[in-house]
């Protein structure tokens, strides 16, 4: 088990808590908290083969210890910080277009869709704002802390809380359509994994290593499979939670579990396609050919998405607490605990470019744009970067 995980879990058990706080660090040290037992790799020199340039940046206030991610409707970017600031940003210029000062702390966001922007709180509140002017649209109160961004679309908003429940609300007014609950293991990571939604189903990874598809219409289980099986003599050793990003398209759903596997399944029936032993806290991304995942020691892997063959591994970022990979045309981007973004060649994992931010950890998923991407740091910086194949400069 990762030494940082052991330290954080031990502290959690001594305090009598049933959840382990992954929010404060790579499990316990991402934003300066916790006790690190390993020394992160030093950055290596390399010749840049593509140029990264900063298009704009804004600040929305610190996100630590929570994991905030930016969202977009194609015209604007929406971002939030824990102190209750929600900002609408012009996607081209970085100019602030609207702002909502919510007046109380928030713990998750943002979800964008159906003309709405959603955030969540530790008290189970879901707050919806109109995307045009960020004026309040509706609110709803659910059970449990909300720690992951809501998913909005197809006329509904899907929310998950850390008590094991998933809720589906009507986008129009926030009324509850259905709720689906499940029991949790004795000890879990204190972060709810992301959700993926299409017109038919909601795909969710769970504590204990399960991956399920729920009917969008009524929440009924369509299928459930095991990405990982808890194993070991102690509750610490038996943690096998899926807390990172899922990747899905019309054919396939893929996930990775802590102390478990990375695996892909048929989206319709849940039949296994392939699986490989790997421990991950941050999840996966995929394109038409490959699946990308970072393990719990920050190595980045690429697998053939049809057969599960390991195509390459980039291990020169060891223990730099890399984020969920983001596929960007011919590159794969990952952030690290010092706020650096590393661009890797999709074909072989070689370093292609690197750029810094404000020094805050990059942990949540990044947002892909046309010829670029947006990242939010733990310090509250929101950065838009452009990828250019000319005018290359060394870092």
UniProtKB/TrEMBL annotation:
Location (main, coarse): membrane
InterPro entries xrefs: BamB (IPR017687), PQQ_b-propeller_rpt (IPR018391), PQQ_rpt_dom (IPR002372), Quinoprotein_ADH-like_sf (IPR011047), WD40/YVTN_repeat-like_dom_sf (IPR015943)
Domain Pyrrolo-quinoline quinone repeat stretches: 82-314
A Pfam family this chain is assigned to: PQQ_2
HAMAP family in UniProt: OM_assembly_BamB (MF_00923)
Matches recorded under NCBIfam families: assembly_YfgL
Family: Belongs to the BamB family.
Name this polypeptide is given: Outer membrane protein assembly factor BamB
Species the sequence originates in: Sulfuritortus calidifontis
Organism lineage string: Bacteria, Pseudomonadati, Pseudomonadota, Betaproteobacteria, Nitrosomonadales
